[in-house]
Amino acid sequence: MSKPHLRLADVHRHYGEGDRTVRVLEAANLTVESGEMVALVAPSGAGKSTLLHLCGLLESPQSGEIEIVGQPTSKLSDRGRTQLRRSTVGYVYQFHHLLPEFTALENVVMPQLIVGKSDKESAGRAMELLGLLGVGHRATHRPAELSGGEQQRIAIARAAANHPRVILADEPTGNLDPETSDVVFGALKDLIRNEGAAALIATHNYDLARRADRIVTIRGGLVVAHEL
Ligand SMILES: Nc1ncnc2c1ncn2[C@@H]1O[C@H](COP(=O)(O)OP(=O)(O)OP(=O)(O)O)[C@@H](O)[C@H]1O
User: What biological-process terms (Gene Ontology) are attached (predicted)?
Assistant: First the structure.
């Protein structure tokens, strides 16, 4: 059997000390397979951002292990974590965070140049992704010249540029109207399937969460299956 793309084993994460300790995760476990889309639905303050940051190697747990494609990360140096993150994790935020002075194409090319790909290869991949997400005709536009849904699809293309094994999204459609949310979520789902990435998507939108392969929540410091 191939290794799960994303695995959390007995992860503990708390903030603060003594009386002020906030225990977010206590011995939390989660496995996401290649091509699987898992929705994360939990009340405000339950720890969604914390969980996504841990999976994206942006934060470290106090104990436990996070594995990306079978590679344990707890003993990596900061540099090792950054390298692994850049080559294996794609992150989509609620607000697109595209670079305003660059075109859609350039925004998707940039992360590829950072990992050492050639201009030609990067541009080819960027055009492929923009096409897949239905925004190929907007390649030369700057973010300010794009609709919210187009901006978010370009942010998804950017996150997918380096063929990430893990895609993490924090309210990726939180800023969009219902119809556009539907289109963007569908595009994200197709991309995850096509790329065979493991995805964890935090959302407050129950209709969208139901379109994921399964839904999880955070309860009592654990990541548990959730019924809507
Ligand atoms: N740097 C920090 N220092 C102290 N406490 C923190 C820190 N970051 C998060 N917390 C606490 O940990 C808990 C989980 O926070 P987190 O941001 O992960 O929640 P969330 O589910 O993403 O919330 P929301 O939906 O409101 O964004 C909260 O109680 C928060 O106050």
Answer: lipoprotein localization to outer membrane; protein localization to outer membrane
